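Long-time lurker, first post. I've been practising inverse folding by hand and with some scripts of my own, and I keep getting stuck on stretches where the structure tokens seem ambiguous. Below is the full token string for one chain I'm working on. Before anyone asks, I'm not after the true native sequence, just a reasonable design that respects the backbone. If someone could post their per-position residues I'd love to compare against what I wrote down in my notebook.
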């Protein structure tokens, strides 16, 4: 009886130790680039310069081939709005908070993957010499995220990760009706970085 009770108490510890041997989680840090297309709608034109930033991702594997991912991205870029009455540059801070489902395919040291999810995307004007109009407001949008890429395992704990990501969101207006295109745009967001498995 005592041996059975001891075995029953040790079973959860053995199970936790077995899970501890697997790398079910990783965190990655990547450099990112934002490449929005030019958009025209309702008489307003939006042209954005490419932006650059950093993406931090946390991934938890539910199985060896599928997992959940949380992302935070910070970037800056210049947006150019123009119509018949305005011609304005805005220096903008871009932030992404998103979640996605990730499906991986294991091919030796190469691990291609695809992902899809949703996120919140925030455009905030930066009040500096790059912004030609003041008293602008922040834009918060909900959008769709999708992507595909690969991870190359350089050791059991580290891999190099490259991905083409993109998100579909409504164009920002910064609280100015004349800047509204009334359209959505597909922002390309390629990233490359390194991931640590634990």
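-- Answer (accepted) --
I ran through it position by position. Result:
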């Amino acid at each position: 009886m005592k041996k059975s009770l001891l075995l029953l108490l040790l079973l959860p510890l053995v199970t936790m130790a077995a899970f501890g041997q697997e790398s079910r989680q990783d965190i990655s840090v990547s450099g990112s680039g934002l490449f929005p297309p030019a958009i025209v709608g309702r008489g307003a034109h939006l042209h954005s310069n490419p932006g650059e930033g950093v993406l931090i991702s946390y991934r938890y594997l539910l199985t060896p081939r599928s997992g959940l991912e949380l992302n935070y991205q910070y970037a800056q870029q210049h947006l150019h709005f123009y119509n018949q009455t305005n011609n304005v540059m805005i220096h903008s801070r871009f932030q992404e908070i998103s979640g996605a489902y990730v499906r991986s395919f294991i091919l030796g040291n190469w691990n291609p993957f695809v992902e899809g999810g949703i996120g919140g995307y925030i455009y905030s004007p930066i009040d500096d010499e790059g912004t030609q109009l003041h008293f602008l407001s922040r834009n918060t949008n909900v959008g769709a995220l999708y992507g595909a890429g690969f991870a190359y395992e350089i050791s059991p704990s580290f891999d190099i990760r490259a991905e083409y990501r993109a998100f579909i969101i409504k164009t920002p207006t910064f609280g100015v009706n004349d800047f509204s295109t009334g359209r959505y745009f597909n922002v390309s967001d390629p990233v490359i970085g390194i991931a640590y498995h634990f």
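A couple of notes from the structure itself: DSSP finds one helix and ten strands in the chain. The two ends are 38 Å apart (CA to CA). Happy to go over any region you disagree with.
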